[in-house]
Amino acid sequence: MSSGPAGRRPLGVTRVANQVVAWIAVLTALQVPGVHAMYQAAGQSLERVLRRSLAHRGARVQLREDGTTLDIDLFLVLLAGNSAPEVGREVQRRVADAVERMLGLSVGSIDVHISEVVFAS
Q1: In 53, 109, 110, 121, which residue has its Cα 20 to 30 A from 64's Cα atom?
Q2: How far apart are CA 94 and CA 79, in angstroms?
Q3: 60-90 as b/e, with b when 16 or more CB fall inside 10 Å?
Q4: What was the pLDDT predicted at 45?
């Protein structure tokens, strides 16, 4: 029987719902300068730009067959005047770090989709 850290044997399995992963990804992405909101690509016209309570719908999470690697799609609303490639890279970096640090899962890919641009009023 194999043991875990400090000679302890594993007590069971921890599973994390896709919605939890989506929330981590979305809340992290929303902290990146230039990200205005999340976007629901399949939403009705009035609810495409998502309020914080529904923001997790702006992410799609898929677990690969290996059971330890995630692929994440994020649908963002970009604030005009920001560089989409720069914001996208920063979102990818921060989200990968947050998911790996909080959940111990590796991230295979994070695809960032700029779905809309808004102009500050």
Answers
A1: 53
A2: 18
A3: bbeeeeeeeebebbbbbbbbeebeeeebbeb
A4: 47
Question: How far is the CA of 45 from the CAs of 26, 51, 121, in angstroms?
Answer: 21, 14, 21
Give the other-Cβ count within 10 Å of 49's Cβ. 19
For 69, list phi and psi in degrees, rounded to 5.
-120, 135
**Six token digits for residue 18:** 């896709």
Helix (H, G, I), strand (E, B) or coil at 90: helix
Q: CA angle at residue 75 from 104 to 64, to 5 degrees?
A: 40
Residues in the chain: 121
Q: Give the mean model confidence (pLDDT) for residues 4-29.
A: 83
What's the angle, vertex CA 43, arms to CA 42 and CA 47, rounded to 5? 155
Tell me 85's DSSP state: H
pLDDT in tens, 36-65: 988 875 554 445 554 545 445 789 999 889
Task: Show the domains of the chain with their CATH numbers.
Answer: 16-118 (3.30.70.1350)
**61-111 residue pLDDT tens:** 998 898 889 999 999 999 999 999 999 999 999 999 999 999 988 999 999
